[in-house]
Specification:
single chain, 429 residues, alpha+beta, Helix Hairpins, BirA Bifunctional Protein, domain 2, 2 domains, eight-stranded mixed beta sheet, three-stranded mixed beta sheet, 38% helix, elongated
Amino acid sequence: MHDIKLIRECPEIFDKALEKRGESSESSKIIALDTQRRTNIEKLEKLLAERKVLSKKVGAAANNNDDAANSIRENIKKMKHEIARLETSLRDIEQDLEALLLSIPNLLSDDVPIGQSETDNVEVYRWGKIKSFNFQPKEHFEVGATKNDINFEVASKVTGSRFVFLSKSVALLHRALTQYMLNTNIIESELTEFWAPVLVNEQSMLGTGQLPKFREDSYHTNDGLWLIPTAEVPLTNIGKDKIYSIEELPIRMTAATQCFRSEAGSAGKDTTGMIRQHQFEKVEMVTFCKPEFENFELERMTDCAERILKNLLIPFRKILLCSGDIGFGSKKTYDLEVWLPGQNRYREISSCSICGDFQSRRINIRYKNDRESKPQFISTLNGSGLAVGRCLVAVVENNQQEDGSVEIPEVLRPYMFNFKKIDNNGNLN
C-alpha cells in the first residue's frame, strides 16, 4: 500500500518511481479517485450536520402539524435518501481506490539498478571455490546415494506433478538441514523462533502483498483460508494493528514451515528435480525495524543466510536484483545463488528483501519513539534462510563422489547420528 498523501503532494515523483519499474503512471487516476472521495466525505459530513440541526427542530415541533413542521420532515426525508446515495457512492469510490493502490508494486530504493530482466542483475561477489570433479557430476536425482529415495513417480500417483517423496537417508538429510538452519538462525544469528500456521485468512495474504497480485500462484480452501507461499505471511501479520515501542525494535524472527505455490507462471520450467515444487519446506526470516535501519538489517539478514551456506561449504554468489527482476512487494532485494555442478550453473536459494512500509501500511504495524510521539509505520524485511529442498540439492551435488556416494558436510553430522557418508545404495556410513 502507498501513502496517499505523498502521491497527492508529489505525483511526479511517484510516477517517476513507477517508471523505474517499467510501470505506467498512476498518480492521475489515484488523485482523481481521492478527490472524489474527499468531495463525497465533505458533502456527507455537511448533510449529516444539517440533518442533525433539522432533527432537533422537528423534535421541538413534534406535536405540531403545521406547514413548517411538515416541511422540515420532508427535508429530512430527502436528506436521508441523499445521505444513503452518498454513502453508497463513497463505498464504491473507496473500493476502487483501494483496489488500484493494492495493484501497484512497491517503489524501489535509489540504489536498485535499472534493467529489464535477470540478465541485468548485478553480481556483488562470489564465495567459495567451485569443485573440480574428475568425473561428470550428476544432478541430485541421478546420484546413486539419493536416486532411489527421491521419488517423483510415486508422488505423481498420490498427488500429481511437482511433488516428491523423500525416504531413508535423504529424508533424514532434509530434516537435518531444516534443524541445522533453525539452530544456526537461533544460536548464531540471534533470531527468535516461531512455529507458525500454514493456513491464513485472506486479509493476511493481502497484507503481505500476495493478493491480489499472486492469486493464481496461491492455493486456497473452500472456507476462505489460504495455504502460505512462505512463513513471511504469518510472521509479518504477527504485528497486525500493533504499536511497538522503540525499545522493542528491531524484532528478528525465524520459522520453518511447509510452503505451497501453484507455480502458475512456470509451465515448462524445471519440470525435473526438486528445484520448483508445489510443496516445499523453507526456513524464513522476518524483521521489523525503524526505517533508517532497513539497509543495515538487509545486510544482516543476508549475512544470516550466507552463514549457513559458508558452514556447509557450498559455493554461492550474491546478486543485487535490477528493477525488471525484483519482486512486487520489495524495494531492494539480494538473491543468493548456489553452484549446482549437475546443472553447471548457479541457482537461487535465498531472496532477502526490504519492503519498507509497503506491508506495514497494509497491515497497520507501527512504532513510537516515545509516549508523546505520533506512531509511524515500521519497515519490514523478509528473507529465506534457506529453501531446504534447494539446499539439499546443493549439498548432494557438491558433495557427490565418483562411486555415487555423498559426503555429509561436517556441520550436519550431529543431526545424522554422526555418520559421514551416504553410500551408493542410500545407506548411512
